[in-house]
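From the shared-data thread, chain only:
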Amino acid sequence: MKRTLLVMVAVLVAAVMFFFGATAGAMDSKMTGKTGYTRSESDLRAGMRKLWEEHIVYTRGYIISALAGMDDTGKVAERLLKNQDDIGNAIKPVYGEDAGKKLAALLRDHILIAADIVAAAKAGDNNGVAAGQKRWTGNADDIAVFLASANPNWKLQDLKDMLYKHLALTTTEVVSRLKKDWAADIAAYDEGHDHMLMFADMLSDGIVKQFPAKFTK
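Structure, as tokens:
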């Protein structure tokens, strides 16, 4: 009886693991068109997602703290800027030291410009917001051009579209919080979070296509 029970439990556990594994694989293939990944490719995708998820999470943290005038604003900004360095460091093994530093510098500008926009919006300085938005879009163009030049699988217009949407959703967060429209604020963040993960996957897919030999095992 005891042996029969153990066999039943083992079969049940195996069935549950198969179900969740198959479900996760189906969801991933629906998003990317792929049905499976090598271990090295999965590690790349997971690492890239973590970095860009931190980008969106700490950006939101900064928006909340800065608009509310909280004491942790400076520390949140430091952590957010560190994330840009981490993203730059992540591409160095593939694209080299100079490319990693260049990307980190561009992303740091992205954050510093965003901080200026938040400050202007909080102060009701519409001219400052407009000027900041123009600089922000120009910086997004610079990031897109840099990435497109590094990898032919990252199309310039696709990169611009993804980055512009990120800017638009982040702006909606700021405006919604200033208006105390919490529902719109949360909706913009949720959409922006999903969008950032899509961006991370797009970058990972491009790297794998450019360097397939690195991801065959």
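The mean pLDDT is 88.
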